[in-house]
Amino acid sequence: MKNKNVINYFWKNHKANAGLLAVFMMLANIMQTSSIAFLVPVLDYMKVNGEIDLTRSYWTYIDRVFSYIGIEISFVNLLVVVFLFLLSYQIFAYFRTIVLEITSAKVLVGLQGNMMNSILVLPYRVLSNYSSADLITFVNRQCVLATEVFKIFFNIMVTVTLILFQTGLMMLLNVKVTLISFSVIVLVLATTKLKFKAMKSIGHLINQDTVLFNRGVSEIFNAIKYIKVLGLERTSFIKMKTYLQQLFKNRKTEILIKSSLELFITPVYYALILIFLFVAVTVIHMPFANIMVYLLIASRILPLIPNLIREMSRLMAFVPSFGDINELISESSEDWEDAYNEVNIDRVIMKEMSFSYEDGCKALTSISATLEKNKIYGIVGKSGAGKSTLIDIILNILQQSEGSIEFQSSADDKTDRRKWNAFYLTQNPVVIEGTVRENLQFGKIRDDASDDDFLEALAHVGLDDAFKDREGLDTAITQEAGNISIGQKQRLALARLFLYDYSLIVLDECTSAVDERSKQLIIDAIKEIKESIVILVTHDLDVMETCDHVLEVNNGTLVSQEKSTYN
Which residues does the chain have with pLDDT short of 70? Predict the structure, then answer.
């Protein structure tokens, strides 16, 4: 990830705010530099006790300005001008800070929004390379650090422009001394380039260690029951401690690199001040007022240099975070309207369809079958036979490697996969934190769906009485459905099926965690489904009895046969 891409991203998405920041930055720097520059006439005025020569250099311009606004040149008026410059600087600096903070918040929300958009629209085969912990890390930590990149970059620009402004003022006082001093500073900055590269490398390592740590935390939380039962608390802690120790090691290296950047630079600046004093007094005989202003400017510039180096080192450490999330941010926008321009499909036709993973391992070979509306299909097979891969291709989660798969409708012989509606119940059904009603609404529902429809959907899966004694549809479901049973969780997710008219319905082991009564309710509900292609992935013989055809997947190949033959 090159630094210019960072700049391009911020400029492309936040150019108005960036322009406003630049205006306040320039005005604040002009006011601050002007307040320092005006100390020269103040000191001159004090030196000659007010007996100034209005024909000399800057006094001519000051006299014109003061005459134009109708005031006389006096010590008090000169101090008032300095005060006004300082006050203006504070006002512009205040608005610069406010705009920067507001823009930073906007940048963070924008990055997180782009990340979520990309996660939702990117193909599953891309997202499957990341764990949920990785994606959470990207959306939270990496986006925050990427926002810091924006703030640091702007702070660097403020510092650089301020140094240039005040260096220009120093050149008005003495060109040769300023050029020599500035050349030494540039040379010192050039020597830090290797350190900046080291900071960037450390930034990459810290990001990697953070992702590994978050993955470990996620794994432990997911397996907490298993860990408790088997007494693996100490083993799990030692594993996480290893991640933390490596993270600490890299952070310590980062701190040492930062410190070493400042260690040898500060003495150079002190030496420059002493050399200037010696040259100014003994060689070029600079006027006292000029020496004082020169030293005042130098005392303001020199602390900025270590700050500049510190900010640049932070920039190098945080830029990799922007690179990480930029890989996932999709530049193309999703046309969400098309997703709702749905077509009811009549059949799915697979011809000589095969699928291979990136490592060359073949999961499916020459699959040919036709799935038609108003039919129920059972897909069976041993674990690892390829059932999940076949379902993922049918649902457009994966793309076949060879052959073809077509979706046909009565309105159009072939239709875009995005334009048909499908229902999918996984083996680990999705139930969100919220009310029962909100869970039923977490899917497609008919426009005229009412509470009565919600209750009827619950009745289809045997949950019509489950929440009656609590708060009905307003019953709260806790995070990860911790306050309902596994069977209730599966049936609650299945109930969404009955709130919309789906063209394609895929139920993966929909009766694996329910009792006999609930299973029969589900089977009866499945039999009532019309105008849909229904696919049941199952090992349950009772569920197979509802199927019109049973498709057996064996070692990546498909055998279509009647259910009676399979039984």
Answer: 1-7, 188-189, 191-194, 261-266, 269, 323-324, 326-343, 411-420, 513, 560-567
Does 382 reside within a domain? Answer: yes
Asked if 549 and 378 touch (Cβ cutoff 8 Å), the reply is yes
User: The domain containing residue 547 runs over which residues?
Assistant: 345-566
Q: Report if residue 142 sits inside a domain.
A: yes
Q: Is the C-alpha dihedral spanning 192, 193, 197, 199 positive or negative?
A: positive
Q: How much is the CA Rg of the chain, to the nearest whole Å?
A: 35
Same domain, 528 and 412: yes
Vertex 408 angle, CA 357 and 533, to 5°: 80
Closest CA to 512 of 499, 525, 498, 494: 494
Going across the sheet that includes 549-554, the strands are: 422-425, 504-508, 533-537, 375-380, 549-554, 557-561
In angstroms, the CA 544 to CA 370 distance is 18
Partners of residue 376 on adjacent β-strands:
534
Q: What is the pTM of this model?
A: 0.70
Cβ 44 vs Cβ 173: under 8 Å: no
Q: Give the three-state DSSP class for 429.
A: coil
Q: What is the end-to-end Cα distance of the chain in Å, rounded? A: 58
Q: What is the CATH number of the domain that holds 294?
A: 1.20.1560.10
pLDDT in tens, 292-340: 777 777 777 777 777 777 777 777 777 777 766 766 665 444 444 444 4
Domain finish residue from 298, 326, 354: 326
Q: Closest by alpha carbon to 525, among 461, 456, 440?
A: 461
User: What is the Cα–Cα distance from 131 to 375, expressed in whole angstroms?
Assistant: 36
pLDDT of res. 94: 92
- Residue the block writes with tokens 């070029």: 284
Q: CB atoms < 10 A from the CB of 306, how many?
A: 15
Position 179 in a domain: yes
| Tens-place pLDDT, residues 84-117 | 999 999 999 999 889 888 888 888 888 888 888 8
Backbone torsions φ then ψ of 468, nearest 5 degrees: -65, -40
pLDDT at 262: 63
- Contact by Cβ (8 Å): 523, 500: no
Cα–Cα distance measured from residue 92 to residue 85, given in angstroms and rounded to the nearest whole number: 11
Q: Compute the distance between CA of residue 138 and CA of residue 325 in angstroms, rounded to an integer.
A: 6
Q: Is residue 267, in this structure, part of any structural domain at all?
A: yes
Q: How many residues does the chain have?
A: 567
How many other CB atoms are there within 10 angstroms of residue 517's CB atom?
Answer: 9
